[in-house]
Amino acid sequence: MLILAYVMSKTRVLVVDDDADILALLKYNLEKEGFKVRTVEDSREAVGEALGFSPDLIILDIMMPFINGLDLCRQFRRMEKFKEAYIFFLTARSETLLQEPALNAGADDFIEKIVGLRLLTNRVVAVLKRHFVIRKSLSEVKVGGLQVSRTKSLAVLAGEKIPLARPELDLLFFLAQNPRKVITRENLIGNIWGSEIYSGSLSVDTYLEKLSQKLGVGWIMRLSEDKYKFIPR
């Protein structure tokens, strides 16, 4: 009975992709992290499988026969049961123009397949083991006296508009969802841009410094050479 209870309590991940090799690799890697995983190769079976499995995270390929990932994502988001579930997209490099439609469809994150399974696994672990919140689908985040708008590419603090460059916006949007958590430079790069496709710790430090100047003293604390904490005021 104890073993059964442990298995049933595992965090659940549903992966939908028409590539059997990718399904097998993802299942193997995610199960190694302790997650309970189910895979679906035929997208027409995804909703029925999800209803019976109740996943905490759904990983979708975008380009699939029968029902594409964008339509599936919209279906899930219309269902009360999956409004709070995480939804990640796997995309091919040729599908980068679909990233904005993917977010508008309700996806929380998208990861290029070429980046690799390590980054995907790290992000799954980050959100499901409650290390960080990653919801890029949100149009805005409010924390303390700060409002960050992804669609308008700006922040509003005490009624004052703060224009943001795209990297600053991505960085602040992530920080605002994870206040008061100790975050390393590697966490920032891996969860926002992807460690394999973005490099340069100096650039990250530069963006953090610019954000600190725009927000004012005390919002972003540097705890050590590569550790930070975002503290809303």
> What topology, given as strand order, has the largest sheet?
2-1-3-4-5
Total domain modules = 2
| Oligomer designation | single chain
What low-confidence regions span 5 or more consecutive residues with pLDDT below 50? 1-8
Give Rg in angstroms: 18 Å
Gross morphology is: globular
* CATH-level-4 superfamily name of the largest domain: Response regulator
Query: Could you give a short account of the major beta sheet?
Result: 5 strands, parallel
Main CATH class of the largest domain: Alpha Beta
Task: Tell me the strand percentage band.
Answer: 15-25%
Helix/strand structural class: alpha/beta
Q: Give the termini separation.
A: 48 Å
What is the number of helices?
9
Mean pLDDT: 86
Q: Assign the CATH architecture of the largest domain.
A: 3-Layer(aba) Sandwich
Helix fraction, binned, reads: 25-40%
The CATH topology of the largest domain turns out to be Rossmann fold
Write the element-wise H/E pattern from the N-terminal end onward.
HEHEHEHEHEHEEEEHEHHEE
Q: How many β-strands, per DSSP? A: 12
Describe what is shown at a glance:
This protein has 233 residues and is an alpha/beta fold.
Report on the architecture of this protein.
By secondary structure, the protein is α/β, with parallel strands linked by helices. The chain has 2 domains: 2-128, Response regulator (Rossmann fold); 140-230, Arc Repressor Mutant, subunit A. It contains 9 helices and 12 strands. The protein has helices at 2-9, 20-32, 46-53, 69-78, 99-104, 117-128, 166-177, 185-193, 201-215, and strands spanning 12-16, 36-40, 57-61, 86-91, 109-112, 140-143, 146-149, 154-157, 160-163, 182-184, 220-222, 227-230. The longest helix has 15 residues, at 201-215. It is globular and about 50 Å long.
